[in-house]
Design brief:
The chain is built from no helices and 19 strands. It has about 200 residues and is an all-beta fold. The protein folds into 2 domains: about 110 residues, YVTN repeat-like/Quinoprotein amine dehydrogenase (Methylamine Dehydrogenase, Chain H, 7 Propeller); about 90 residues, Thrombin, subunit H. The strands form 5 sheets. Strands 4-5-6-7 form a 4-stranded antiparallel sheet, with no helix packed on it. It has a 4-stranded antiparallel sheet with strand order 8-9-10-11, with no helix packed on it. The protein is elongated.
């Protein structure tokens, strides 16, 4: 099985999948509107196509060209879309960052995560894909919620000692979560999986 290269043609609303070595067209898909973002699943079996203007995501299968999936966020709108590490769930962020909707391709179940913060890096997964951290903003304060990716249940929820949380990132071992403040504060904090503040640095 060779490598494949995905190329989206926005003018014709088409997704073109080519062989990376020969550039020969392998599959050609037609979407409902202009494609604004594409992303491969982790196992390269599916391709996500986001059409933010219409609040729609379409998913295509390379193994089963006749199979496809359409996710419509409706009046909630859509500003971002991405795969979960397992390549079988899609995370859609609605307009005004009111919520993140987690759609399962396998069970067709839907989970909702409220109050995601609009920041540089507001969602982070551990390297093994077991946990997801989400930066949140509610009641004029910053929080972090940690979810278990197998069932999207909340594991921990805690506030952060930040003025304007700018981003989060897991350590490679998945045991420590770094959170950094806006550049005006120049501050970074390290939290454990259970929400304890382990260390902080401020210049």
């Amino acid at each position: 099985c060779g490598f494949v290269l995905a190329q989206a043609s926005c003018v014709q609303y088409r997704l073109v999948v080519r062989d990376a070595s020969s550039l020969q067209i392998l599959q050609l898909y037609t979407c409902l509107d202009q494609i604004q973002y594409i992303e491969w699943s982790s196992d390269s079996l599916f391709i996500l196509c986001a059409m933010y203007k219409r609040g729609i995501v379409q998913v295509w299968s390379l193994e089963q060209p006749d199979w496809h999936c359409k996710i419509d966020e409706g009046s909630a709108g859509l500003v971002a879309s991405c795969w979960s590490p397992d390549g079988r769930h899609i995370l859609n962020t609605t307009e005004f960052h009111l919520r993140i909707t987690v759609w399962s391709l396998c069970t067709k179940s839907v989970s909702y995560i409220k109050y995601p913060k609009a920041c540089q890096q507001g969602v982070a997964f551990t390297k093994d894909g077991r946990y997801m951290a989400v930066a949140e903003r509610r009641d004029c304060k910053d929080f972090i919620s940690i979810f278990v990716c197998s069932d999207w249940q909340l594991l921990r929820h805690f506030d952060t000692e930040t003025q304007d949380l700018f981003g989060i990132e897991w350590a490679p071992n998945g045991c420590v979560l770094a959170a950094w403040d806006t550049c005006l504060e120049y501050k970074i904090l390290l939290y454990s999986l259970d929400g304890r503040l382990l260390s902080s640095y401020r210049a």
